[in-house]
Write a structure and sequence with these properties.
2 copies of one chain form a homodimer. With 345 residues, the first copy, chain A, is α/β, with parallel strands linked by helices. The first copy, chain A, is built from 10 helices and 17 strands. In chain A, the strands form 4 sheets. In chain A, strands 5, 6, 7, 8, 9, 16 and 17 form a 7-stranded mixed sheet that branches. In chain A, strands 12-11-10-13-14-15 form a 6-stranded parallel sheet, sandwiched between helices. A two-stranded antiparallel ribbon of chain A has the order 1-4. In chain A, strand 16, helix 10 and strand 17 form a beta-alpha-beta unit. In chain A, helix 2 crosses helix 3. The longest helix of chain A has 17 residues. Chain A starts with a strand and ends with a strand. In chain A, 50% of the residues are buried. The interface between A and B is medium-sized, with 33 and 33 residues. Chains A, B: This is Enoyl reductase (ER) domain-containing protein. Chains A, B: It comes from Agrocybe pediades. Chains A, B: Keywords: Oxidoreductase.
């Protein structure tokens, strides 16, 4: 087999505000690879099928000197994210040709890894024969994020009220469905009529478009809220703090309103945590893996396979799209879980 | 006995910023009372000995239409706070002349109450024969605040580091001592050299004056911090968020930096709750009474009596001083637990 193109998406420049396609990241088509002959040195050759693009990636687009829980992308090197690949060749006992793997992969058509465990990759058995991209959304990091934190922090009780921001996204939409299964009243917000419609389909009792409806007014009418699932921070968090009930819980999953705005307004209503005896929990999904991972893998895939838990994807095609998708996710103009489809199985 | 003056401190006007003595509250000396003959209608006549002046009182000085966990003061009526009184006459089985009572009392020389329980008053047995004002500080609401929330939320482990703001106050100083008893490294901040000295005396490993030393620099050097006891909010909270360790706990007891400033800067560093998996707990002491009250009453009074737990008071004399003391406490210019001594026993 002749060499083929090994397209890559490189981190090019630290963005000040929103990441700019072609500037923050660039698509590079100059590299080639011969999948049949490329030396693996005892490793594994993986062909990329799909990538997940998630809000947290903005945090890696920073100066490498700024510490965080996740390392910064390196200028001139490929960006990376959760992805699905298929093993093409293997010189390592941890995987064999044909295995489908899930984990962090460089944004390139091909990845060579020493072995699965050092690369943090796992083989997907896909017992329910679901589309592979399902493992990037409801069965992947976003779904685990919802499930682990809901189990760990919500202390949900039947009859309580929860407010979920970005309720049509991969994280928020599973939170809505978990909350309904626990017997709660669910209020969901999102940024388009299509997303509002999806939130209603998955069971939200109240679903509204925060761009055309005042969050504060909805919460004043439909609250008080016992649980707030925060994906956005900023003014929405301030509105939620005002609408919280005594002994309420706030689960801080993300604060996208501040990711691209260094001059974001601070949170003004934090004093409500005192008067209302609130608890706020922030978390990072991987720290909850050991505690809730097994339950998730047992409970959620069958519900997804049977359709009892619904999910939705917005798929782009080709590595060339990555820069656009990263921006779309930061601006919330993706219609559902953002997936970049790179190659067919 | 001829009628005597029944001085009162009346709430006169809702303050915009800091409360102003003579404007926000006024001292009124026009009322008289004859303790021997005043009709009690089956109730209890109490002579005030001491009042506690605490930061939270600012929250009651608001427009009555603004809801909170504590009711607003009424314009033209006496302000009230925790106090100690002695029963002068009683027509009620719940108390007898000579009993010392603790609870919320109107700021007046004399209070008439229907009975103890409906007034939320309790009789102090004072088994250790401590000065009565002790029951307004380390053995009163401030001490309970420290103890209940430390037990409930700190999850303190030996060898951890805690940062306590307003560490020389009645709440902070007990937190420092509870933390040292639990084997933690303690960093305390306060606003004067005298207070810094007191924090050292009670065991703080690092004590600094936030007016002359940068909180951020101290925490960068002495942190990361596992627990932050927040009495102030604002910039100090932002500095703490930055210095928190992974899985850190923030106990929000008060936010005095915002009480008198409607245009306070918002909290900018809240995103750290995600990356560091932080927990923030706000609370109001009375909601923890049932769970920790009995332990407090068994454990703390003997330690205060033996001197193992230290405390300090700043005593003003006479009801006329109340307005000044309220302001001093909001500005932090009191030197220790603020007490107004009204009458001798």
């Amino acid at each position: 087999m002749a060499p083929v193109k090994n397209g890559r998406v490189l981190f090019n420049e630290v963005p000040q505000g929103y990441p700019e396609p072609g500037k923050t990241t660039v698509y590079d088509a100059t590299q080639t690879i011969d999948p049949e002959t490329v030396p693996l040195d005892g490793g594994i050759l993986i062909k990329t099928l799909d990538f997940s693009i998630d809000p947290y990636l903005r945090g890696r687009m920073r100066d490498a000197s700024a510490k965080s829980y996740a390392p910064a992308f390196e200028i001139g090197k490929p960006v990376y994210s959760f992805g699905i690949g298929v093993v093409i060749r293997s010189e390592n006992a941890s995987a064999k040709a044909g295995d489908h793997v899930y984990g962090i992969l460089d944004h390139a058509n091909y990845n060579i890894k020493k072995d699965l465990s050092s690369a943090g990759l796992e083989i997907l058995d896909n017992a329910h024969n679901l589309p592979w991209s399902t493992y990037l959304g409801v069965l992947g990091m976003p779904g685990k994020t919802s499930y682990y934190a809901w189990k760990e922090y919500s202390k949900a009780k039947k009859g309580e009220t929860v407010f979920v921001s970005t309720g049509a996204g991969p994280v928020g939409s599973l939170v809505i469905q978990l909350a309904k299964r626990d017997g709660l009243k669910v209020i969901g917000s999102a940024g388009s009529e299509e997303k509002v419609q999806f939130m209603k389909e998955i069971g939200a009792d109240v679903a509204f478009n925060y761009k055309t409806t005042s969050t504060k007014e909805v919460l004043a009418r439909e609250g008080p809220i016992d649980i707030y699932w925060d994906n956005v921070g900023g003014e929405t968090l301030d509105a939620a703090l005002e609408a919280m009930a005594v002994n309420g819980r706030i689960i801080v999953c993300g604060m996208i309103s501040g990711y691209n705005n260094q001059h974001a307004t601070g949170i003004k209503n934090l004093f409500h945590v005192i008067a209302k005896s609130l608890t706020i929990n922030g978390f990072v999904v991987f720290r909850l893996e050991d505690k809730h991972g097994a339950d998730f893998r047992r409970e959620i895939p069958p519900l997804v396979a049977s359709g009892e838990i619904k999910h939705k994807e917005h798929v782009w095609n080709g590595l060339e799209a990555v820069g656009d998708v990263i921006l779309a996710v930061q601006k919330g103009i993706n219609k559902a879980k953002a997936v970049v489809h790179v190659a067919d199985d």
